[in-house]
Design a protein that fits this description.
InterPro entries: DUF7121
Keywords: Coiled coil
Radius of gyration: 53 Å
Pfam family, one: DUF7121
Distance between the termini: 41 Å
Shape: rod-shaped
Organism: Methanomicrobium antiquum
Protein name: Phosphoserine phosphatase
Structural class: mainly alpha
Amino acid sequence: MLNELIEKRKVVLQQSEEHKEKRNELNALASAQARERNQLNAQTREFVDEAQKNKELRDQANNDVHRIKDERNVYNDQANALFEEIDAHKKEHGAINSNRGIKELQKQIEHLEMEQQTRVMNTEKERELIEKIKQLRNSIKEQEEELEQNKEVHTKLQEARDLRKKASDLHATVTEAAELAQKYHDLMVECYRKADKSREAADEAHKKFVEAQESADAEHNQFIACQKEIRDYDKVIGGLRKKTKKSKVTKEQKAVRKEAEQVFQQFRSGEKLTTDDILLLQRAKLI
């Protein structure tokens, strides 16, 4: 029975070591997944922060677009008012036939420029639009050259041209600000896309971390159970060994006692005792 228990204890001890080793492997895996998750979460925060910065820059550029547009419109309105006065003078003095006035032509140019800025079109369509704007500008230039001969409207025409030039320059600035706003918008969207992808990877790493940690806990519980079972075996095996040892000592004592009694009887019969005989009698406590 004792040998059987010892063999069973060996089996449980082996199982205990296996659970311990597996637990350590799973804990190491859980730690690796936790590190990866934390790195991905940090990366996600960086992408979100970068997206927020690009959003602020986009909003700032859009604000610039609206502000510059308003300023451009003021110049255009002022120029239109002067051109309206010039057109009125032309009508009054018969300088306009069936041609459209400068103000009307300029409004059409503004409309086409806005269409160019806001609509998505192919290269051919955009080229046609640019050519049409060019033709309208030439028409305005022809009328302005005609008006240059009239000293009465010369000053107003020059002032209107200056205002129109300022408006045109601001229009180019509006286009640049709008393109910049689009650039920052695209960067913002890309950063959010990267953040979503990074967040998904972090969630997956966290899922694997939880799975590894739960498996490690299960292996640890198995290890603890094996350790308890080993202690139980040790108690039983220790008790059996103590009992066996005590039984062996008792048998030896009986054998010594029996042998000593025989020697003692020989002594009483008058036989001489050797030193070993005396020691044997002492062990048996007969002398």
